[in-house]
Amino acid sequence: MKTIEGKLGWAILFALALAFPFLASNDYLLTVMSLAYIYAIATIGLNLITGYTGQFNLAHSGFMAVGAYTVGILTVDHQWPFWLAFALSGFVAAAIGIAVGIVSLRLKGHFFSIFTLCVGYIMFLLIEKWESLTHGTVGIIGIPAPENFLGIDFDTPRGQYYMVLFFLVISVWIMHRIVTSLLGRTFMAVRNSEELAEALGINLMRNKVLAFTLSVFYAGVAGGLYAGAVRFIGPGLAGVEHTFDMTMFMLVGGIGTLFGPLLGSISMPWLTQYLQFLQDYRFIVFGPILVALVIFLPNGIVGTYLAWKARAAYRKSAPAAARAQGAQGVAPAKQEKPSHA
């Protein structure tokens, strides 16, 4: 029954996503939602290494920029078709991620986070200063729209929306298969206790590097989609503030869950959009909301709901277990044979 409810819930969400372009009043809303979906893909990847494996990567936005610049450089400077360049975006980010992961994952806890923070800043500086490759602070302008596929025009906001939605659905499905597999259980074992996982025969380094590589692959794919949707990229995309945004999405939705990062990535951009009328003062409202969420919902919206559901199930099953134990306790004891002197 639980599986049926889960599939039904995802089916309803998918149906609402399909219907959104027909409910949106203008193309701006489609653009906002498309960007939210792109950041949702990147956040799902960050959640794999942080929420499921327990390693906080602060260079995640840098790998997203790698995917975006892969598409931008190949399409603008070398006239590659968009789809061919996009196919490489995730793999280029993953290739760099393997090298970074092998070095950085030898560290643990906040040492790893500080190291990746430095890596992310180095990536930002390389993008900003390597003008012959990345165009420097000017950025890459005029990235072509994805070519038509099966008669679908991706040059329109609605076409871009459905393109990003397609990759979001694929990303969520693949991540679901990963986290519910033996590999996902291995990642969670590493998160819960590295010493115990190693005692059980789990290769810590290999599994952490694999989780890191899969995570930055998601970031590279999100960056490639970002380049195709926005058509302009600059060094700011690699800024650590974008990683903090994705971290906020995870914390609000529920870190270490599949639906939580998706919920946070979609809901928080809309909240900021509705607070735009406050201009510079919107953070006075936005900040306390985040603080209240962290205080009263420390496990995020989805994490808190799952914890409440688990407690409710326990309270429901506890009386039945107590009655069963009571019935066993009043059972007649086995009569002992009298002893003879």
UniProtKB/TrEMBL annotation:
<keyword id="KW-0472">Membrane</keyword>
<feature type="transmembrane region" description="Helical">
    <location>
        <begin position="56"/>
        <end position="76"/>
    </location>
</feature>
<feature type="transmembrane region" description="Helical">
    <location>
        <begin position="249"/>
        <end position="271"/>
    </location>
</feature>
<feature type="transmembrane region" description="Helical">
    <location>
        <begin position="161"/>
        <end position="188"/>
    </location>
</feature>
<feature type="transmembrane region" description="Helical">
    <location>
        <begin position="283"/>
        <end position="308"/>
    </location>
</feature>
<keyword id="KW-1003">Cell membrane</keyword>
<protein>
    <submittedName>
        <fullName>Branched-chain amino acid ABC transporter permease</fullName>
    </submittedName>
</protein>
<feature type="transmembrane region" description="Helical">
    <location>
        <begin position="82"/>
        <end position="103"/>
    </location>
</feature>
<feature type="transmembrane region" description="Helical">
    <location>
        <begin position="29"/>
        <end position="49"/>
    </location>
</feature>
<keyword id="KW-0812">Transmembrane</keyword>
<dbReference type="Pfam" id="PF02653">
    <property type="entry name" value="BPD_transp_2"/>
</dbReference>
<keyword id="KW-1133">Transmembrane helix</keyword>
<feature type="transmembrane region" description="Helical">
    <location>
        <begin position="110"/>
        <end position="127"/>
    </location>
</feature>
<feature type="transmembrane region" description="Helical">
    <location>
        <begin position="209"/>
        <end position="229"/>
    </location>
</feature>
<dbReference type="InterPro" id="IPR001851">
    <property type="entry name" value="ABC_transp_permease"/>
</dbReference>
<dbReference type="InterPro" id="IPR043428">
    <property type="entry name" value="LivM-like"/>
</dbReference>
